[in-house]
Amino acid sequence: MKTLADLRAIKEKAKQDMASREKTAKYRIIVSMGTCGIAAGARATMSAIIDELNKRNIKDAIVTQTGCLGYCDQEPMIQISQASKQTITYGKVTPEIAREIINGHVVNDKVLTNYVFNLS
Amino acid sequence: MRELSLNILDIVTNSIEAEASRVIIYIEELDRENIFRIRIRDNGRGMSRETQEKVLDPFITSRTTRSVGMGLSLLNQSARQSGGFVELNSEVGKGTTVTAEFRKNHLNRAPLGNIVETIVNLVISNMDVHFCYLHRTDSGYFSFDSFWIYARMVERACSIYEVAEPAREQIKKHLLAIRSSG
Predict the structure, then answer these.
(1) Which of A40, A51, B49, B127: CA 20 to 30 A from A95?
(2) In chain A, which residue's Cα lies nearest the Cα of B128?
């Protein structure tokens, strides 16, 4: 049985963990979750990303979500940003492609040019 | 949207875009009253009366009001097609509550679908937001707090991605216990 003090301690620890994660994360994976993205399957795409990060025990990547990026026909879209590098946007990212992108871009640090969507 | 859990994901994304730090998702499946109700309450920046009047109509909602898109009007359409309605309660600076009510057994009512995936993905991809998910049926009630995920992450000193599957299992167990039919 946990006391209130235990719960507070866990909450504090979780906060610290999140702050350090935020600082040390090398990759930020942003899933576009506007109405258009969700209708095109963004939820399953995000689940595949979470699953792949877990399977490969990747700790230096953060998954976040954002609203519509303005290119609804390219949904589901994801963006990968890295400090001091250009943010890469991928379009029509099915769960299978999402797994490929995690393995190529996040694990091997190689941009998968055939899935890149150029924002212009 | 084929599943109401996708509409929920959509509406909560509005809350996050409105910089909410706390979101409560409340689902009620009431067989006796034949009501399926979804209520989403956030402490985001809220909407003016003028915006509130516009967001339910897909033809008036304009993209220049970047804070809201098509999501609410889709939910509204879906609710009205199944004998229900959407009600907005919002105050600038305080937050927004969206209530969607459906006739539970109406032929046009979409199923709840994969609510487990909606909740777990929301928690994992918005770690700075506190989520509380409450679900009630005629046979019972449960609540699932995003704190459950953090506590497990801290206790086992593991990544949040490792907690995804145990969290899904936990919510599934709860849903089974209250005999949710979705």
Answers:
(1) B127
(2) A18
